[in-house]
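Before relying on records like the one below, remember that each one covers exactly one chain. Contacts with other chains, cofactors or solvent are not represented anywhere in the record.
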Amino acid sequence: MSSSDVFYGIADGAQWLFRNTLEPIGDSFWTITLIAGFLAFGYWMFRQNKFNNEAANNPDQRK
């Protein structure tokens, strides 16, 4: 068994993975990722606004 057999095996495995998992998924993975990112950003901004309001109403905090 030579090193070319190993590299061809890796290449064949990568091609199989691409053809059987990535191509059927298409753009739906990236669409879901984008929507999840927007939702996470919206939640983060909601929490940040809540924390800012708590800090503005707390006179005992250090500034």
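Residues 28-56 form the longest helix (29 residues).
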